[in-house]
Amino acid sequence: MPGADIDKYVKFFQYLLIDGKFYTLFSLLFGIGFSIIISHAAERGADGFRIFYRRMLILALIGCTHLMTVWSGDILLLYAVLGMLLPLFRNLSDKKILTIAGILLILPVFIDAFCEIFDVFLARFPYSKWWETATAQGITEKNFGTWLRDASGYKDVFSFLLQGAWERLYEFVDGNRYFKVLGLFLIGFVIGRRKIYADLNAHSSLLCRIAILGLLIGLPLSVLYAVSGINGHPCGNAVHSLLYTVSVYPLGFAYAALLGLFCIRYPHIALWRIIAAPGRMALTNYISQSLIGMWLFYGIGLGMGASIGLGLTELIALGVFSFQILFSMGWLRFFRFGPLEWIWRMLTYGKLLPLLK
Questions:
Q1: CA 117 → CA 43, 109, 113, 120, 176, distances in Å?
Q2: Cβ(134)–Cβ(163) under 8 Å?
Q3: pLDDT, tens only, 213-255
């Protein structure tokens, strides 16, 4: 493509500064949110936990619908299932929870090393089902990358999504994603339980230490991680997994700490109000990103997929999110919740709730 030379640099900086770091932040935020929900549930007793599990079940159904009808890259289903495990940890001390979290985050390195040494393929079943389903739909390695761009109708899209569900399961197993996500959930759970987010000034010294250590460790090691990523893991999957662990998490935690410190230093700037709006509508914006992506990239829309380079794709992503910020700010001027947040809440509590302010 014409932008191939630029795309090489974009890909390197994506690995260096973005890849894994923002999903780390997203997972921490989910863990914090779960801690708030669970604390409210504990105050209500048994009924509170029934509401919590109902909330997670509805989120799982939303994620499953998203996975099977719009985009194979859904994360909500996994988040909902793992979120159901968090109440099991509510009576443990913070130290025990953080210890378990640390073990979960480092465990994928040992699993990948074991698989590499003994030539074990843990994801064999979902991988086989993935290509078995793909072959049945007429999808091959040759047309895989252009299938959605060339889709002439939703039937073609659905054929791809059928095999895509197995592909997603393969990715979770092969990438040990459930260990990583649960570990980050538990760290977020402790952050939420200590209410660090509610009083940043009282925890400024902790945030400073995390930011400094995270940058000193995470940034240089992210360079090695980026080199490994763009060159196809030349030292093997276990080494790449180790580089991921020692670079992505420290830098992701540094981002979170730096945001907290910036908020302490500049508590009243417009930036917080601007980014709070899409944050209050996170579910709506997450799903609508997929719908916008379907319109932009699939053949049933503008068909831009597999036709543009990474640099332009990043600019499109920035444009989409900028639009969502403006939409969220406008929507919340008149309404109490985002549209999907409103539906999720009503299904959780089983009653009609007012939407208009």
A1: 49, 12, 6, 8, 17
A2: yes
A3: 999 999 999 999 999 999 999 999 999 999 999 999 999 999 9
